[in-house]
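Running this now, will post back.
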Amino acid sequence: MSDSEYKYGSELKNVVFVEDDKRHADLRIRLRHDGITQTQFFQGIITGYLNKDERIIEYMTDLKYEIAKQGKSKIKKTRALIDDGSRILEEFSFTSAERKELFDVIAEEAE
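Update: finished.
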């Protein structure tokens, strides 16, 4: 396939990681209890993360503090930028495309 024929976003990718057998079994049990598949679970979590769902952002902020992968000031700055962006979106009723563009700008500033 030549470069001109390639459509970004149409190719499927596998996301793979390793987990111990106990946690995998626990996950499968919980998912079965909730009536969703592993695929639905991970796609849902990824969608929430990429869409900056407040519930996921809150959890990720806690997780970043816990694993200390970023300095506290950077974590706070990122959180403040996301919060400011959310308030602006609510206040001005941006379209979906405008929201995505705005959050992309916010993410770039946080880096």
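The chain has a mean pLDDT of 81. More later if anyone needs it.
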